[in-house]
Amino acid sequence: MSDERPERPDVEGPDSEHPRPGEGETGAEGADDRHLDDTFTDAEPLAEHDDAELDLGDTTPADDTDVEAQEDPALDAAADEDPADEDIALSEDAVEPDVDVDETATPAEAVAEDEPFEDVDDPEEDDLDEDDVDDDSVPPLHAIDADPVEDEHDDLHEAPDDDRRDETRTRSAVAAALAGSALSTPPPDDELRHEPEDDALPLHDGPHEESSTDRHDGAAGIPPIGGEGPSEKRPRRRGRWALLAAVVVLGGLYVGGYVLTGTRMPADASIGGVDVGGLSPAAARAAVDEELTPREGDPVTLTHADESFEIDPAEAGLALDVDASVDQAGGVRSWDPRDMVALFFGSHEHAPVLDVDDAALKAAVDGVAEAVDVPVTEALITFPEAKPKPRAPKPGLVVRKDDTAQLVQDQYLVQTDPAKVPTAAVEPAVDEDGLRRAMTEVAEPAVAAPVTIEVGDKDVDLPVTAYAPALTVEPVDGAMAPVIDPEKLAEPLTDATTGIGKKAVDATVEIRDDKPVVVPGKEGVGLQPQEMAEKLVPVLTETGDERTVQVEAKVVEPAFTTEDAKALKIVEKIGEFTTEYPHAEYRNVNQGRAAEILNGTILKPGDTFSFNDTVGERTAANGFTTGSVINNGRFQDELGGGVSQVVTTTYNAAFFAGLEDVEHHPHAFYIDRYPVGREATVYFGSLDLRFRNNLQSGVLIRAFVQKSSPGGVGRTTVQMWGTKEFEVKAGKSERRNFRAPATRYDDSDDCVPQAPLQGFDIDIYRTLSKGGKVVKRETDTANYQAAARIVCGEEPKDD
């Protein structure tokens, strides 16, 4: 017999079959014999034979010889009774013969009365009595381990020579089995004699009818039995093992997917249009490098309206990163399940990864924006000659710089057609309807009459012409409102209120004995421009007595104070240039007048100088006379002729002072008394000379003219004073691109003969250094036209 069979085959699990009433061929006798047979077979061999093999599972008649010899006669008598009688008759030592089992009693009561364990002599256990057989003392059926494999393992952990412990445990199991038999209907004898195959518990296929003894509920008097039977454990065990197996399989697939990513590119993948699907990362890098690297120098073309812009990748700071491009497209290992799925499914298009110099790209986009941007034109009303003049609003246009920078990156390496520059419209704050309302409701009433100023016991009428130059009507918080500029109001306000107080004098810087000297400003007494501007605005739309403001005369500070002048740090000469001119009276007049106006001009750090704004239009009222100018490629007489000599001299003084060139225009053709390529001209309303004070100090312009005389030359000098920051050196290239002059005939009354001059191009260099180290190099190109030979008279006719 196999020693792996169950020790107690008579213990019923939840799947055991029970005979229905009237069924089964084995009666109570067979059941009782079988029951007692198992009981003493478990007990005696342990007591008499220490080395005997314990076998509770073998219950065939051939193996029952020893057991039958020890059976009590009372048991034989009980076996002869009617099989239908379910009362179990035990020997006098085991059961009291006179006790009648009440069929209506609960199984628990029957157990308490029968006391079937008295004949089992166990010195280490107390006799079972009524008090012992209770809910806690009856071993639950689930506590009896029906798993022979586990029991086998339990036995292996015990010492083989500990017989006493084995005997004690066995007797306890027998007692538990007897208690279980008393609580349930014995199974058929043929079922008990069924030997399980393959060392496993028997599985019964027959139907099972639940009896009252099977249902251990409170209604039957027996509390529910805790724990789980073998058949209940197994489905849960199988479920746990299945879950564990699924986790292991999925984990294996997940790890396998991780390993597979990075060894091949995803299915149907491309980088910048280069097919890399299914390739190894190394092969993908080679393919991308072969296809895209040759395109690295290709410009990105943007368009706007009729304009086209080419962005040079090198200047814009763009470069291809092959490795990062492949890695981004799936060339590295990944724990992301989506990347694993992508190895086999889907289409995956990726843009190349770029190395981007953000500052260089921003500069390239700013260059495009400078050409494309159209500033919004806001509605505005000004008052030239004290009359309202409206300016219609117009929407503006700006480049969306962030979008443009991204567009350049997106188009780089893959562009097939020019891309449009992303722009956005900028609407004016006030539309034309708002401008029309402002004209009638604000502008016209504002200049309808003077404003009365009450200063103490004096009343002064402030004429419209005094405040109109400082007045504008412009958008304020989305609506048209009057605005007065205090600085523009200061001078006319003082002139209009001469009877009130005393005018303040601004501080200045003068050159005395070839040294800069700060001339202090002087306080005045009068009306404060800021206060007057604030009080004038509310009454401009009023009429009658409401068109009055009350103010007090106060100390008036100069607009440019002594402290302001000292803060400019004008301490030395930083640039100077002198030009000569042949005698001509108009030159003495016009150059002298221009130098007079220009002299004493002060530029604060960051200010931009404009010759036209400073000197003004060259008119007779402004002190200018008629002289020779170049217009339309030829000399002719106009007001202000000869002023370009002052312009050229000023340009060169700023050039050597290290000031920033903003705008200058060489003459149409070269005039040899000027430095070649380093000269400038102006024409009011179109051509100007502008430069910016890029120094930390202020700049004082000093200009003067030594007038010419007959037979002598005149000299124009311009100086720049401040704090020197740069050492400046000039250079030039050779002349090139020579152009031959033509001959023209002029039979008009104002014809001026002109000698021919050759045209050419030349480059001018400026190098700026600090402390002996070059900080900036500049190149400017002058393009001179050829000056035609002008012949006064009719053109000769060919013979």
Descriptive keywords:
single chain, 799 residues, alpha+beta, four-stranded antiparallel beta sheet, 22 helices, 36 strands, 31% helix, 22% strand, extended, disordered N terminus
Task: Put the structure in a nutshell.
The chain has 799 residues and is α+β, with helices and mostly antiparallel strands. Helices cover 31% and strands 22% of the residues. A 4-stranded antiparallel beta sheet has the order 22-30-29-23. Strands 31, 32, 34 and 35 form a 4-stranded antiparallel beta sheet that branches.
Task: Walk me through this protein's architecture.
With 799 residues, this protein is an alpha+beta fold. Mean pLDDT is 76; it is low at 1-163 and 173-228. β17 (508-512) and β18 form a beta hairpin.
Topology:
Layout: H1 28-48, H2 65-69, H3 73-80, H4 107-114, H5 148-156, H6 163-182, H7 189-192, H8 230-260, E1 269-271, E2 274-275, H9 281-292, E3 300-304, E4 307-311, H10 313-316, E5 318-320, H11 322-331, H12 337-342, E6 348-350, E7 354-356, H13 358-372, E8 380-382, E9 389-391, E10 396-399, H14 401-411, E11 419-420, E12 423-426, H15 432-446, E13 451-455, E14 458-462, H16 464-467, E15 471-476, E16 479-484, H17 486-496, E17 508-512, E18 515-519, E19 524-526, H18 529-539, E20 548-551, E21 554-556, H19 562-567, E22 572-582, H20 585-598, E23 601-603, E24 608-610, H21 611-615, E25 626-631, E26 634-639, H22 644-657, E27 660-663, E28 690-692, E29 699-706, E30 713-722, E31 727-732, E32 736-739, E33 743-746, E34 759-770, E35 773-784, E36 789-792
Parallel strand pairs: 1-6, 3-11, 13-20, 33-36
Antiparallel strand pairs: 1-2, 3-4, 5-7, 8-9, 10-12, 13-14, 15-16, 17-18, 19-21, 22-30, 23-29, 24-28, 25-26, 27-28, 29-30, 31-34, 32-34, 34-35
Helix pairs in contact: 1-3, 1-6, 9-11, 17-18
